[in-house]
Design goal:
The complex is a heterodimer of chains A (233) and B (234). Chain A has a domain of 152 residues: 3-Layer(aba) Sandwich (Rossmann fold). In chain A, helix 3 packs parallel to helix 5. Chain A is of the alpha/beta class and 233 residues long. A six-stranded mixed sheet of chain A has the order 4-5-6-1-7-8, sandwiched between helices. A two-stranded antiparallel ribbon of chain A has the order 2-3. Chain A has nine helices and eight strands. Chain B is mainly α and 234 residues long. In chain B, 79% of the residues lie in helices and 0% in strands. Chain B has eleven helices and no strands. In chain B, helix 4 runs parallel beside helix 9 and helix 8 runs antiparallel to helix 11. The model of chain B has no long low-confidence stretch (mean pLDDT 91).
């Protein structure tokens, strides 16, 4: 359960949220994505008090996109999957096809356009889900461990796409990750969530140099050792 | 026994020669039940989506009540429709008593709880991530509902077909509000009931074979849908 979360993410920032499993990262992201409601408190997105203005939530949701931890593909082709959010926004047909094919190329899935999305592997589905979110050109992009199921090569490609999107379109990224190295690479701001509380929030150089013996230090130290071990193996 | 065997042979003859009365009753049955199903589907698809996607107090109770009405006795629905549309009833002025139109209305009322409950179940069995994904990509409620129905299409079609099965096989309601009038409101089930009571076993058997064939087709289609749904899931 989240407690006393007070968080401000600047427009155009890349905010990476780290923390142990069960800390509440996905819950926080779902609240930001307007999929769940907070029990108390305020939530302002793009200048709109979304709790007190439920009639504006659709408008705000259409300016965001969310890639879930275990994304699901719709029962149609890969291209149709990408086209769905554009169709919902009444984008003209020809533009839908152009944008969809373009984004598939950016995530390295251009050869999968006509294939049934239900036949894709976990990693391929993840890339399609990312493309599906990016094609809408969101102002805010929420990603729940987007490279978790990807091999290092694909993960690198996705990171490049995300970094480019953030840079060129000034898209605000809010992303959870277990990969501290990724957090260091991509983050403008890092938040550490532990047991439902945001215990630290700041630039990477501040967060990754915590006080010794603090819970954050123990968590970061453990995670870095785990990642070193995985690299050796 | 030889009478029964003769009856079967005569029934087959009526079928093979497309006896006009047999064909008229068959097409009237199909017309009334298919129309009732279409009307029910037009009501249940949006209503089922709305109930599934909306959180409100008493939702579980409502779904339980809907499921309770799955096996509502047809004569009870027939009685209700009779009361409403009889001369003394609130809709008596419409003059619909003993017409195919009223039979359509009655069958639709009979089928709606079953179809609605099964559509809600079909949507509930969908991965919750589907709706979340739709909302998170900017779908409105209506758009998310359409997507959910598409994703659950095999189960939804199964619900509609099961509704049709209930409609085509019911006799109580059709008898009470249709009157079993020859050439006008006589359908397969009411004709079988009448002809059997008159002792015309051959005609009853012919109509019974047709009803059996329709049931068989329904079952084969349902079975095929289940197979397609299973292979789509894997």
């Amino acid at each position: 359960m989240l407690q006393d979360i007070s968080l401000q993410v600047e427009s155009g920032d890349s905010f990476l949220l780290i923390g142990p499993t069960g800390a509440g990262k996905t819950t926080l992201l779902r609240i930001l994505g307007l999929l769940d409601k907070p029990v108390t408190g305020d939530l302002h997105i793009l200048g709109v008090d979304v709790i007190r203005s439920p009639d504006r939530q659709l408008e705000i949701r259409r300016r965001m996109a969310f890639v879930q931890q275990k994304p699901v593909a719709f029962s149609c082709s890969v291209l149709e999957n990408i086209a769905y959010p554009l169709r919902w926004r009444k984008v003209p047909k020809q533009e839908i096809k152009t944008r969809a094919l373009d984004i598939l190329e950016q995530v390295g899935m251009q050869d999968f356009a006509g294939r049934s999305a239900r036949t894709l592997s976990g990693g391929e589905t993840q890339r399609v889900a990312i493309a599906r979110a990016l094609v809408t050109r969101p102002e805010i992009l929420l990603l729940d461990e987007p490279t978790a199921n990807l091999d290092p090569n694909s993960a690198g490609k996705i990171e490049d796409v995300l970094a480019r999107v953030a840079r060129e379109r000034q898209t605000t990224l809010v992303m959870t990750t277990h990969d501290l190295a990724q957090a260091r690479r991509l983050a403008g701001t890092v938040g550490v969530l532990m047991a439902g509380k945001l215990v630290e929030c700041g630039p990477p150089e501040q967060v990754f140099n915590p006080q010794a013996d603090s819970p954050i230090a123990r968590f970061i130290g453990f995670k870095l050792a785990e990642q070193d071990f995985n690299r050796m193996v | 026994m030889s009478e029964l065997w003769q009856g079967i042979l005569r029934a087959l003859e009526l079928l093979v020669t497309f006896d006009p009365e047999v064909m008229a009753v068959t097409f009237r049955s199909l017309g009334i039940s298919v129309t009732a199903c279409i009307i029910s589907a037009l009501v249940c698809l949006p209503l089922g989506s709305l109930i599934h996607f909306t959180s409100f107090r008493g939702k579980h109770l409502l779904v339980s009540i809907i499921q309770t009405f799955y096996s509502l006795p047809t004569v009870l629905v027939g009685l209700l429709v009779f009361i409403l549309f009889s001369r003394a009833g609130p809709f008596g002025d419409l003059g619909l008593m003993f017409t195919p139109t009223l039979m359509v209305i009655g069958q639709a009322l009979l089928v709606i709880p079953l179809m609605l409950g099964l559509i809600i179940s079909a949507l509930a069995s969908l991965d919750k991530t589907v709706a979340d994904t739709a909302f998170s990509l900017g779908a409105s409620r209506f758009q998310a509902g359409i997507l959910a129905l598409k994703e659950a299409r095999y189960a939804v079609v199964t619900a509609v077909i099961m509704g049709f099965g209930r409609a085509i096989s019911e006799v109580g309601l059709a008898m009470m509000v249709g009157g079993n009038i020859r050439g006008f409101t006589r359908i397969l089930t009411t004709a079988i009931s009448l002809e059997t009571s008159k002792g015309d076993i051959e005609l009853s058997l012919a109509l019974g074979f047709i009803l059996l064939i329709i049931s068989l087709v329904i079952n084969v289609v349902l079975g095929r849908l289940q197979q397609v749904r299973s292979s789509a899931a894997h």
